[in-house]
Amino acid sequence: MASVIVGLAYLKPYCGSYLQDVYVSDFQIYFQQSYFKFDFNNLLCHGSVLDIDIENEVITVLFNAKFYLIVSQIFLLMFFIVQIKFVILDTKKVIFIYIFLSFLIQIIFNFNFGINLLNELSIQQLIFFISIGVFLNETK
Amino acid sequence: MKLSKLNFEMYAFFGIMSLLFLNYDLFVAAALIYILFLIFIKYEIEVTTIFKFLTYIYVISFFTVVRLLPIVNKNYLPIWNRIAQQNYLIGDGYFLSEDIFLDLQLTLFSMSCNTNQLTYKIRYSSDYLDTKILSCPYETPYGNVLNFIKINENIWQSTVIAGTILLFLFFLVYLDIVKDFEGKKFILSTLLFVSPPINFLLFRLNIDLFIFFMVYIFIFKLGDKFLLKTMALFAATLVKFYTIAIIFFDLVNNVLSKRYRYSLISIAAFAISISYLLFFDSNTQFLDWFNRPIESNINFGIFNDALYLSQIFGVSWFIIFCCLTLLILGFIYIIPEAKISHNLNENELSIMTLFLSMAVFSNFDYRLVFLLLLIKPFLFKKINLSFISMTIFMYTSPSLLHAYENYYKIVRNDEIFFLDFSFYFFIAICSKTMWIKLFKLRSSPTN
Predict the structure, then answer these.
(1) Can you tell me the distance from the alpha carbon of B273 to that of B280, in angstroms, rounded to the nearest whole number?
(2) Hey, is the C-beta of A106 within 8 angstroms of any chain B C-beta?
(3) Distance, first Cα to last Cα, chain B
(4) B185-201: per-residue pLDDT in tens?
């Protein structure tokens, strides 16, 4: 996790400002969709600010809906299914791994948006996977 | 040691309940964590009479007092905003929480247009809507039957009177459902009654609350009178069509149970309902609502998700719909039969059918109010997977992502799609339960 934070800090001069650095209260945030062609420049700079329109109070942010959905949500689902069906882990390990993965994704994708850690990925999906995962894990 | 444990859990509960009045968004997060804590602790919590009494005061205050105070005195409008989840945003991030009982106002206004009402200004609108005054003709996307109901009263006064009655009735339903529960079951069922979809419903006072009362009274209280029940369901179907799912369930169940006289009644009610739905233009306009994607933060539905995902991935919605169906089948496969609730009677199975039929299309989250009727069977024995998944699903609908306006900086959030796995998991649980109860147990030789 620490290496991810260092990596993001390293990318900062390359990608420019992120939403969390420049956000102005009450501005509307619009996403500029980038294409999912394994263009790592786009992917690594997910959440970087492309344009600030002071007059219209609009901030445009680089964002890839497909990549966001796959990594932040579908990846966790895949892990959940594999864990439930094929891997035997004790409950503590299950909880630790879900929290670790969720926070890792959180840092990569949501931190750059300036989103507080108390949002969907760290609470909503996490709670679902942990509670159902632990409950089903106990039956194995 | 035991005493301090009891105190901690009691204080934590009332602390979290206090958040209801201070900041509803924070309440949701805190309550969700507390619910998980309750679900996974092995010991029981003692719920005393005083504990119950205090809880009732909190709940009735949340249902009625804080909602009616701003009506008595406009200076209390900030309270109304604090009990609102930030999802209730419309119009590019403008916060419109001050529209008190908005849906009830709109419904009553549309009915007043059947007489001689011409215009109406919504109370209390925030600045965004101040210039918007409703004028006749104005139709709500409900059944055509509302076009024949005429009211000639003051809209705002009617809203306040009807709203107050509905809120108090809802509190009575709460009392009726939780009164027999003790310990953790009492706390958990109470927390479900103040969950986000219920708050959303009480905030808007959509006509769904009226349908909920009809279902509660005529199915759960007078359910043994089949003809009366079917008539009530038919009447509800005239207003909002989704209760046709219960009529359909009754039809299938009566045929499978070889109750042919009841089957005839169900067939007649079903056939007339379908004819009514297709015959009137205004009804078919209502069907258009199912065909448009609504923000995932206030909505649930497989078709809705399929429309969103098809936009994101640029493929047909049907392919996505099939993928989501496979996801449900996958969940059905991994759910152990022993972990789900089997204590459902026909009435409760009909509520599951209602939920499953809604889950196919697009529905606003407040329609999850019907799931409250599943609390009793799910908590009949010990807390099981059915109850856990329903609780998580309800507490994350509307989703938390969009709730944290103060902490979450993206105010225009349509583009972030949230795939709610708890929704699909709960569909899988309901489907598996229905399958077991309707077909597997029925065909079992021991049954």
Answers:
(1) 11
(2) no
(3) 48
(4) 999 999 999 999 999 99
Identify the CA nearest to B89 among candidates B63, B130, B126. Answer: B126
A134 touches chain B (CB under 8 A): yes
Q: B327: which chain A residues are within 8 Å (Cβ-Cβ)? A: 77
CA-nearest residue to A84 within chain B is B334
Residue of B nearest to A69 (CA): B417
Cβ of B334 and A85 within 8 Å?
A: yes
Q: Answer yes or no: are the C-beta atoms of B88 and B189 closer than 8 Å.
A: no
Give the other-Cβ count within 10 Å of A72's Cβ.
21
Least confident of B39-48, B171-180, B321-330: B39-48
The reply to whether residue B412 touches residue A123, judged by beta carbons under 8 angstroms, is no
| DSSP annotation of B42 | -
Please name the member of A77, A114, A136 whose beta carbon is closest to the beta carbon of B421.
A77
The whole-number pLDDT of residue A98 equals: 79
CA distance B399 to B416: 12
pLDDT digits (tens, 9 = 90+) for B42-101: 888 888 899 999 999 999 999 999 999 888 887 887 788 788 876 665 544 445 556 788
| ipTM, 2 dp | 0.80
Distance, CA of B217 to CA of B102 (rounded, Å) = 25
Nearest residue of chain B to residue A114 (CA atoms): B409
* DSSP SS3 for A48: strand
pLDDT of residue A43: 66
CB pairs under 8 A between A and B: 108
Domain segments of chain A: what residues? 2-137
Q: Which residues of B touch A125 (CB under 8 A)?
A: 421
Query: Residue B364: beta bridge partners?
Result: B299
Q: pTM value?
A: 0.88
**How many Cβ atoms sit within 10 Å of the Cβ of residue B281?**
8
Closest residue of chain B to A74, computed from CA coordinates: B419
Question: What letter represents residue A24's amino acid?
Answer: V
